[in-house]
Write a structure and sequence with these properties.
Chain lengths: ~550, ~50, ~170
């Protein structure tokens, strides 16, 4: 029997499912917060019990941006590792440790936010000061994810030792790339949280260097978005071909794309700080150039995906120019949901290029265009792909089947999401271009024509947000069905193969030392001088501020 | 792994001889979209 | 590892477009001087009045030469201080004739704020300890809302002002 149909052991499945349960609980809570935000901003609804809008916004950002994504990604990636290179008992126990540390950290941060002690949004910019438990909780989440990363490294290492001379399985290679990137990136987050925020929030340090903390945060903040995106790319490169009945278009190009992501995702954080004082514009521009380099692997991916579809169709005998397109499995939600995700990445990616275009950033910086942008990239491209994965991964783990009825419900879910997001993200993009700010509660400001126009788009966002919340309820329902109630059976874990006569991948692609060395060199190049400048030209530090966030 | 699908048993072709005209047109449309979006927004930037 | 010939064309055109974008924004930046706000000058956030431009009497809009204006402002949670008028009342609207060159200067006394004249290219982060500066020509007439576009606390959405550009 093919390995794709061979179920995991009970113990292994339980581990991966634990991550999935946290994922979908987070989706429900975070989604509810999102709905409430759009309703408040419509101006037609006020929060009961004196709940602060910014508390909800903090929950939404932390729960969806950090918890939902990280738990899904680590659960999914662990299952990929388990399937392709295997997991030992000891590694499994370490992975459980990672899970519990992450969960404890999440609970700490969540409680601190919910009691109103950490309304600092997920970016927690100093000198707004949250309760120390918030920062400590976040540290736990990150440390837990590090354990997961090192388990993954160990898994591939053990496999390589047992399979001398063989190339590593493509998906295991991709997981390890993503976790190396995550580890290097979160070092910046750990530095600012442990060295700057925790002592300062506890009162041991009187002041904090605001610009330094922001720069360290964004050193982490941009690779964070690629940490979300790469698991979607894993599915696109190595899972979707199997679902459409094709083969992997090119193993080596897929690996090359991931290596480029590793090298260029990190030395680019300054493009989030283009309108900030205190940073030399030349270094901002250098990081803009590096940001443009990270577009290249996405251009490669676009070609590979279309080619995968076309090659699969043509082999089935469709000779006309777009005949292959019609014959894609549109009625299979495991394909449809990620496919819509791919389409959303076209405007998402184009918007990203605009955001990073140096002085043009002034058009969009901190306007709600940005919110619209990452609701396309993360909340559509990544999330719909994650949903597409859920439809086969969860039943594979629980020993159940995705029934035709649940498949149909999934298709409806995908369309509901698409409609809701088109309305919400579309109106956010337009409102942002005419100056509407992000991260703001309902306000009529000084009134006037400009503000009146914004309010119309905010109404549209509430409509879109409501539709999206219906999509979330549907998805959570499907998840519960697949977890506990769907009929027993064996759902395929669809890992695609290469062509039998495929060209051999060059050995250099697995030269980990080389790629990590280049990555570090690029980071040192992009950050050493700006960081040194920031520290040398430091203003007097900032004392903590509690009252602005209602503490 | 994965001998699941009976449809893919035909002999495979060499990668570069596959007809990828549809792919080519698709990525070109994607490129044109990016160019239009970027220049449109750049024009907006200049007009402000 | 080899590329399909169409992929080669696609990547060449793609890389060419990216290079073209970089050339355009690089030219605009380094030859024409349109950088994003990037000023490097520090200030004590607890004592911004010690700095000439941010003395209370110097806040607000001032014509420094024919068609040239400077606007000095201090941001704090949750207010922009544009100075006071003759009746000692806080100024909320800055009025500027069309096509004048305006230098906006702003700093923060407490937390991080934003300063955006919505609908224009004036969009800066305002951080404690740093001075933010941006010079631009106000080309279009109209009433523009000034918004704080970086979260600064519970009253963030109540932090605003107005810039009026008249004929």
């Amino acid at each position: 029997m093919s390995k794709n149909y061979l179920l995991f052991s009970k113990q292994e499945s339980r581990l991966y499912m634990a991550f999935m349960h946290v994922t979908f609980a987070s989706l429900l809570i975070g989604g509810l917060m999102g709905l409430l935000q759009t309703l408040v901003r419509s101006g037609k609804f006020t929060l009961p019990f004196g709940i602060d809008y910014y508390t909800l916004l903090t929950v939404h950002g932390v729960i969806l941006g950090l918890v939902f994504t990280t738990f899904f990604i680590i659960g999914f990636q662990n299952s990929l590792m388990g399937k392709t290179v295997g997991i030992s008992d000891k590694q499994r126990k370490a992975a459980w440790l990672a899970f519990w540390i992450m969960l404890i950290g999440t609970a700490m941060a969540a409680v601190t936010i919910l009691v109103g002690q950490a309304s600092v949004l997920y970016t927690f910019y100093a000198p707004l000061r949250a309760h120390p438990a918030f920062y400590i909780g976040l540290t736990f989440v990150v440390v837990g994810s590090w354990i997961a990363a090192f388990v993954n490294f160990r898994q591939l290492y053990v496999w390589k030792k047992a399979h001398k001379g063989e190339k590593s399985p493509l998906l295991a290679f991709m997981v390890v790339i993503n976790m190396i990137m995550w580890f290097i990136a979160t070092l910046g987050l750990a530095a600012t949280v442990i060295v700057q925020f925790i002592p300062w929030s506890l009162g041991y340090a009187e002041t904090i260097n605001v610009l330094l903390s922001r720069t360290l945060f964004w050193y982490f903040g941009h690779p964070l978005v690629y940490f979300w995106l790469l698991p979607a790319y894993m599915a696109w490169y190595a899972i979707i071909p199997k679902i459409i009945g094709g083969k992997i278009f090119s193993d080596s190009l897929a690996r090359l794309a991931f290596i480029l992501f590793l090298m260029f995702s990190i030395p680019v954080g300054l493009h989030h700080q283009l309108t900030e004082p205190g940073i030399d514009p030349t270094w901002k521009f250098i990081q803009v150039i590096l940001t443009f380099m990270v577009i290249i692997p996405s251009l490669m991916t676009a070609f590979s995906l279309f080619a995968t579809f076309e090659a699969a169709g043509r082999k089935k005998g469709f000779t006309s120019l777009f005949g292959w397109f019609k014959k894609l499995p549109w009625k299979d939600v495991r394909f449809l949901a990620p496919f819509i995700g791919m389409l959303a990445f076209i405007p998402g990616g184009a918007g990203g290029i605009i955001n990073a275009s140096y002085q043009m950033n002034a058009l969009v910086h901190n306007t709600i265009w940005i919110t619209g942008h990452f609701h396309l990239t993360v909340a559509t491209t990544v999330v719909l792909t994650f949903f597409g994965i859920t439809y086969w991964l969860v039943p594979h783990l629980t020993g159940r089947r995705l029934t035709p009825k649940l498949n149909k419900l999934g298709i409806i879910q995908a369309f509901v999401w698409t409609l809701g997001m088109a309305i919400m993200s579309g109106s956010m993009h337009i409102q942002g271009l005419i100056g509407g700010p992000r991260r703001s509660s309902f306000s009529e400001y000084a009134g006037g024509e400009q503000v009146a126009t914004w309010l119309n788009y905010q109404l549209a966002q509430a409509v879109g947000g409501t539709i999206l919340f219906i999509g979330i309820i549907l998805m959570v329902y499907i998840f519960i069905q697949l977890s506990f109630f769907a009929p027993r059976g064996v759902e395929e874990f669809p890992i695609a193969d290469e062509e039998e006569d495929a060209e051999k991948s060059p050995k250099i692609l697995e030269n980990w030392y080389l790629w990590i060395a280049i990555t570090i060199a690029l980071i040192l190049f992009a950050y050493t001088i700006p960081m040194f400048d920031i520290m040398r030209h430091s203003p007097p530090g900032s004392v903590p501020f509690d009252w602005p966030i209602g503490r | 792994m994965g001998k699941g699908n009976p449809k893919q048993q035909q002999p495979s072709q060499n990668e570069s001889s596959i007809n990828l005209k549809g792919t080519f047109i698709s990525v070109m449309l994607l490129g044109i979209f990016i160019l239009i979006a970027w220049f449109g927004l750049y024009a907006l930037f200049l007009s402000r | 590892m080899h590329l399909h010939k169409y992929e080669k064309i696609w990547l060449t055109l793609g890389l060419g477009s990216l290079a073209l974008f970089l050339l355009i924004i690089g030219f605009a930046a380094f030859w024409k001087g349109t950088h994003p706000q990037s000023h490097i000058e520090t200030i004590d956030p607890q004592n911004v009045e010690a700095y000439e431009a941010f003395k209370p009497e110097n806040l607000g809009v001032r014509e420094v030469a024919d068609g040239k204006y400077i606007v000095n402002m201090v941001a704090s949670a949750f207010n922009y201080d544009f100075g006071t008028d003759i009746d000692e009342k806080a100024v909320k609207t800055i009025r500027i004739p069309k096509d004048s060159t305006v230098l906006y200067q702003i700093t923060s006394k407490d937390v991080v704020h934003g300063f955006q004249v919505a609908g224009t290219n004036v969009n800066m982060m305002v951080e404690p300890g740093h001075i933010s500066r941006y010079e631009t020509v106000m080309k279009n007439t109209g009433t523009f809302t000034v918004v704080c576009n970086e979260y600064c606390g519970v009253g963030h959405h109540q932090m605003y002002g107005t810039v009026e550009v008249y004929e």
